[in-house]
Amino acid sequence: MSYEEQQTIERILRTARTIATVGLSNDATKPAHTVPAYLQSQGYRVIPVNPTISEVLGQKAYASLAEVPEPIDVVQIFRRSEQVGPIVDEAIAAGAKAIWMQMGISDEAAAARARAAGLDVVMNQCMRVQHIRWSSTMI
Q1: According to the 3-state scheme, what is the secondary structure of 112-136?
Q2: What is the C-alpha separation between 115 and 56, in angstroms, rounded?
Q3: CATH classification of 3-137 is 3.40.50.720, yes or no?
Q4: 30, 36, 68, 78: least surrounded by Cβ within 10 Å?
Q5: Which uninterrupted H or E stretch holds 56?
Q6: Full-model pTM
């Protein structure tokens, strides 16, 4: 991982408070549930974005980022790489400050659009793993 990417990760983890998680699952065995649950346990406000569920992690779920009624710091993505582009465009329109594509997820064109709009971007990284790593260096 480059120094620049490390700095971006640390900046996001340090400054973010609200994480809208696209693809958050109500299946407690999936990373799309366990990672947001961990982040919630660490004090982040996690907003589920999934049109197939109404509530998860004790939070109302929204069908799209456009429906989220509060400011979003990070849009965390748990969708296949080929589905990232429209999510990133929606995140830009919603005024998000950062995009975080989980492990195995990347889209260079969407990332370039997000960066051009002033958003921080992380691709192919687990937010829980990075939070644990970052937190351990802050002790």
Answers
A1: HHHHHCCCEEECCCCHHHHHHHHHH
A2: 30
A3: yes
A4: 30
A5: strand 55-56
A6: 0.95
Residue 27, Cα to own-chain centre: how many angstroms? 18
The token duo for 102 is: 């989980």
| Residues whose CB falls within 8 Å of the CB of residue 28, separated by 6 or more in sequence, listed in order | 34, 37
C-alpha dihedral sign at 53, 80, 45, 74: negative
Alpha-carbon distance of 97 to 75, in angstroms, equals 8
Integer-rounded Cα Rg, in Å, for the chain is 14
Residues 6+ apart with CB under 8 A from 36: 19, 21, 24, 46, 48, 57, 76
CA 28/CA 103 separation, integer angstroms:
18
Q: What is the pLDDT along the chain (139 residues), one digit of tens a residue?
A: 788 999 999 999 999 999 999 999 999 999 999 999 999 999 999 999 999 999 999 999 999 999 999 999 999 999 999 999 999 999 999 999 999 999 999 999 999 999 999 999 999 999 999 999 988 876 5
- How far from 73 is each of 27, 29, 96, 126, 135, CA to CA, in Å? 25, 26, 5, 17, 19
